[in-house]
Design goal:
By secondary structure, the chain is mainly alpha-helical. The protein is 80% helix and 0% strand. Helix 2 runs parallel beside helix 8 and helix 11 packs across helix 12. The longest helix is centred in the middle third of the chain and has 35 residues. The radius of gyration is 23 Å and the shape is globular.
């Protein structure tokens, strides 16, 4: 129970940085979609470039975050050497990547479809290089149990980014006549999005002054690096196929629907699935706390039971979030511009895919703890192949809806493979039937929001709220012992 309490506490703090920060960033979606028309394809460009950025970030960190945690908790290993070796390796790879992009910016921009706008690629190449370097620094904060500094730096980025974006999109158009605003061009809004990201990322790096002082070139250990690379290369493959599962649709759609149509559809799809990103926020917050917690507590004889319970709670609360979004989708849809809302039917599919991704992450620790990380690469590759196949076959026929279904199929395959293989390799007593029961209940309640659909908005909201409360009641009854413990502790504190 103490371990779960620590996990919950860390999740709250890391969740604040992820959920609050992402929520504030989420508020930029209406700013973008109400000021960049769907027909222009501008938001499709943003979605596409950020998809490439996410993929490159995984390549440049090459699984070193997880490797850093693994080696930091091994007996007889100097933590200072682990930190300097990991940071030095990632920093070197990032610097080489950035140099190559700058040298070959023409061919790279043409390959990505932006030969007319190489400035987009320059800006995002610098961002992804800095992000990769920062990944080890943020991992250091997590390892050392410093969630509040982690929170502060994440929030500093978000607040600064929010302020600059709001200025460019809401204030600058009205001040463009002023002499000192001669730099502003409303037709360059997409470029400004990338430049703001670059500026904010660079500023946050200054907050790691103390951690950077701890880096010592003399602590960079080549034999240790060789061991770390042996552990991490399967994680690199796992990371590539894992992030490709998340970004493949946004990378492939413009290629499968060439021309302006591809970017327009991608912009519409990318805007709508932002509504589904609550799942990604919860999963990320859980991961930030869960990964160091599991590696640090792997010697605890109760760790398997704790993993099983944590997975159950993850599914319960992400399904609650799924129902909450779908019950109030009639209101949430106004967060995006009207010409982007045609892709709303993709939202529940994408949200379920995100839940499956989170379950897959929870199931993945068996091969990380046993050192058989290559299994992760194999399973993720199979899931990725399924996702790509769905996209390639169906995107030309049905457009962006194939992207949503492709993600669901891909993660579904990964979950099934990881569970059945993992139970043979590293048994964890997951409460499978309880988890499936919550899933069945959530889907039945969601189906009722679709089948019973009063014409009046207020009646729909009342009906959907009732269904949401049914799920909460069933969840509270099913976990009544835990609820009783929480209530008992609250009463004890009041006394």
């Amino acid at each position: 129970m103490a371990s779960l309490k620590r996990l919950l506490t860390d999740s709250v703090v890391y969740g604040l940085s992820s959920i609050v920060g992402r929520f504030l960033n989420y508020l930029l979606v209406p700013v973008y979609t109400y000021h960049i028309s769907a027909a222009s394809g501008g938001y499709g460009v943003v979605t596409n470039v950020y998809a490439y950025t996410a993929l490159l970030a995984v390549i440049l960190t090459f699984g070193m975050e997880t490797t850093f945690f693994y080696y930091s908790n091994r007996e007889g290993v100097d933590r200072r050497k682990v930190f300097s070796t990991a940071l030095g390796a990632v920093g070197t790879v990032a610097a080489v990547f950035l140099l190559l992009v700058m040298l070959f910016i023409g061919p790279v921009s043409a390959f990505m479809g932006y030969s007319d706008h190489p400035e987009y690629i320059r800006a995002m190449a610098i961002v992804v290089a800095i992000d990769a370097f920062q990944a080890i620094l943020f991992a250091r904060l997590r390892r050392d149990g410093r969630p509040w500094k982690f929170f502060s730096l994440k929030m500093a980025f978000i607040v600064l980014s929010m302020g600059l974006n709001l200025f460019v999109f809401l204030v600058a158009p009205h001040w463009s006549h002023l002499p000192w605003m001669a730099w502003y061009d409303e037709a360059s809004n997409v470029k400004y999005i990338f430049y703001i990201n670059l500026f904010c990322t660079a500023v946050v790096t200054l907050g790691f002054f103390k951690e950077l002082k701890d880096f010592r070139l003399s602590d960079f250990n080549v034999p240790l690096l060789k061991q770390m690379l042996k552990y991490t290369w399967p994680l690199l493959l796992l990371g590539i196929v894992g992030i490709f599962n998340q970004t493949a649709d946004k990378i492939l759609l413009p290629r499968l629907l060439p021309g302006e149509e591809g970017r327009v559809q991608l912009g519409i799809y990318g805007a709508c699935v932002k509504i589904a990103m609550l799942m990604a926020l919860i999963t990320q917050a859980f991961r930030y706390a869960y990964e160091p917690f599991v590696f640090g507590g792997q010697k605890d004889k109760h760790s398997k039971e704790t993993q099983a319970q944590a997975t159950k709670y993850f599914v319960m609360f992400t399904l609650l979030a799924f129902l909450a979004v779908m019950c109030y989708i009639d209101v949430l849809q106004y967060f995006i511009g009207g010409d982007y809302r045609e892709a709303l039917p993709a939202v529940p599919i994408v949200m379920m895919a995100e839940i499956l991704m989170g379950i897959y992450f929870n199931l993945s620790f068996w091969y990380k703890l046993t050192g058989q990380t290559w299994w992760g690469a194999v399973m993720s590759a199979i899931g990725c192949a399924a996702l790509v196949a769905v996209n390639v076959v169906f995107v030309p026929k049905v457009g962006y809806m194939a992207c949503a279904w492709g993600g669901l199929v891909g993660y579904g395959v990964c979950v099934l493979l990881s569970y059945f293989i993992g139970q043979r390799k590293y048994y964890v007593p997951y409460p499978v039937w309880t988890i499936l029961g919550y899933m069945a209940l959530a889907h039945v309640l969601y189906a009722l929001t679709v089948v019973v659909h009063p014409e009046a908005l207020w009646l729909r909201l009342v009906w959907n709220t009732t269904l949401l409360l049914v799920y909460v009641a069933v969840m509270a009854y099913g976990e009544r012992r835990l609820v009783a413990q929480v209530i008992g502790k609250l009463k004890h504190r009041r006394q």
